[in-house]
Amino acid sequence: MRKILATSLVLASVSFTASAEECGKVTIADMNWNSATLIANIDRFILDHGYGCDAELVPGDTMPTGASMIEKGQPDVAPEFWSNSMKAALDKGVDEGRIRYAGSSLSEGGEEGFWVPEYMVKKDPTLATIEGVKANAKLFEHPEDPDKSAFMGCPAGWNCQISAGNLFNALELDKAGFDLIDPGSGAGLSGSIAKAYEREEAWFGYYWAPTAVLGKYKMVKVDFGSGIDEKQFKDCTTNEDCLDPKVTMYPPSPVDTVVTETFAKRAPAAMEYLSTRAFTNAKMNALLAWMEDNQADGELAAEEFLNENSDIWMKWVSPETADKVKKALAAL
């Protein structure tokens, strides 16, 4: 009996060692914004403790990380990659067998739109539509000109300034009395939402998700009644030289997990996890709001997520892997 037990323990040890060696050292890009650093830390913990990997975070940013993965095969994993930013290069890297799209980090993609506070829509459901907003333009008081209404645009110099401006023109918001206001900065834009919410005042403008702001303040995306015209959006809406913009809703921005082909081939179990792991925008908004309220870094936020959301992450892994992760969490 002892011999059988000893043999079983040896086999189990060999199996675990093989699994660890199979995964090996894994470098994970820790991008310099909150949602990306949160996902990177979650991945590090689960790969370390659930799959026996030797996972390490390395500094990252979109362009240099993408180029390094394609040209040098490092880092192994970029957990949150807004792939439209260098799609041609990424697709070429896939075609050449250098990298692979593992799955979507954000199941609904990045989200942009024109928004109004939820409390306004509860009072008047028509404000969830652009026609309702236009008909009630006087509600949105201009901070400097009482004869005009305020639309808060995207800060100057940001890419979204072009799309927001073109859609402002396509929707003919100026004819409804709106003035396109430059908030001056990202902080100015988010601050204008916070100020309106504290006073339950009217607000109408551009914003995006996932963000802490949309986690803290319940906003409703205004329906333009147009659906999404991806060709129009790509060819004209996002083009500074667009002369005749047409109305279209913002298409979702693909947000992917990108891995090197060498990692994908040597660690199929870890790849299965990365291809399954995804967040809804609503959940990520809430997590980002928690990070901001608690001044938490990615590591602390990852522990909070794993401790408080087992109903979510346990669906990404096998029961055996989940047990390993839970034991590691209990030991913290």
From TrEMBL:
Domain ABC-type glycine betaine transport system substrate-binding span(s) in chain numbering: 25-308
Keywords: Signal
Gene3D superfamilies (alphabetical): Dipeptide-binding Protein, Domain 3, Glycine betaine-binding periplasmic protein, domain 2
GO molecular function: transmembrane transporter activity
A GO CC term assigned to this protein in UniProt: ATP-binding cassette (ABC) transporter complex
Signal peptide: 1-20
Protein name: ABC transporter substrate-binding protein
Highest classification ranks of the organism: Bacteria, Pseudomonadati, Pseudomonadota, Gammaproteobacteria, Vibrionales
